[in-house]
Amino acid sequence: MWGLTKGVDVDFEKIDANLQQWQQGDYVIGDEHSFSHRFDPEFPLTDFSKKVSKKPRVNIVESAVKGFVVVTQTCDIVRSCSERPFVEVMPLVEVPQEQLNEIQRCRRPRYAFIPGAGEYCLVADLDRVMTLEKSVITRWDRKRGCLSDQDIRELGKALARKRMRFAFPDDFINLVAQLTDQFKKKHNKNSTEGAALRALCEIRVQALPSWDAPDVEIMFWFIRDEEQLDFQGTGWNEQMTKWLNLVPKSDRFKSVNGQVITFEDITAKEYIQSDPLDLDHLSS
Question: How many CA atoms lie within 13 A of 194 on its CB side?
Answer without folding.
Answer: 9
